[in-house]
Amino acid sequence: MNKIDATSTDSFVVAGKRFSSRLLVGTGKYKDFEETARAIEASGAEIVTVAVRRVNLTDTSQPMLVDFVAPKKYTYLPNTAGCFTADDAVRTLRLAREAGGWNLVKLEVLGDHKTLYPNIVETLKAAEALIKDKFDVMVYCTDDPIMSKRLEEIGCCAIMPLAAPIGSGLGIQNPVNIRIIVEQSKVPVLVDAGVGTASDAAIAMELGCDGVLMNTAIAAAKDPIKMARAMKLAVEAGRLAYLAGRMPRKMYADPSSPLAGLI
Amino acid sequence: MNITLNGDARAIPDGLSVDGLLRHLGIESKKVAVERNLEIVPKSAFQATEVAEGDRLEIVAFIGGG
User: Fold this and answer.
1) Which ipTM value was assigned to this complex?
2) CATH of the domain at B34
């Protein structure tokens, strides 16, 4: 398994659906919908996260996200960003399912406004309720291997530990935990949140993650379209490097040119 | 008739269905989901569901997010 070369197609399966892009992107924080659409196009992403919010009733003629990012072309992954209790998250995703008509969702229940760290007690509660209600739950969580295992055991279809706080751009703060979660999981593992630049995405993939989900790293770049392309290449490069298998680290030098035949 | 719509008090014409209310507001029904008194109103029931005095309605849609 996992046999690919630089030209063959590599893919991963989540909730029974196959995707060839391992980069998932958010649709928030862009200048306008046009930039959102161009950045997503450049990223090559097939799955895009979206939020669920009250419709603006004061001007209902305003354009909507679906007019620029077609749900027929991209798999919409509704999130529960901004929910701090299991009840709010479940309520939000039930509305999302009705608005969109599909079961695949991203669950995130936050515990603190300053760090936006996940509240795992509420996350577990919400995940159990959603899975019972036939949702396919990709779950945003801390990089704790024990809780990640528990979330997998109750039936989450993807485990998505944070690399660093949401929107921080700090990169992979705990590669050891991410690697442990990758090794122990039978469902896809995606790093979600905290990526800042292309090398962070590559590191996540080199650790063996099945994918990376990001928003701010692209949207807040000076040139989001260029950064989207950079992230696409970084995820592909990191994936290939992981499959290729890196050389062992050594303490001392090992010459690349043969010593025999020296003049 | 008075209802609470997306958290705000609002007067609407009497005798509207959910579908009629969305039309009245100028909202395309296929782009939104509706919750009435904390219960989801399935899209298939928009026409058959009457809005009643004092109802609490939420109309939501997908927006950009991470």
Assistant:
1) 0.95
2) 3.10.20.30
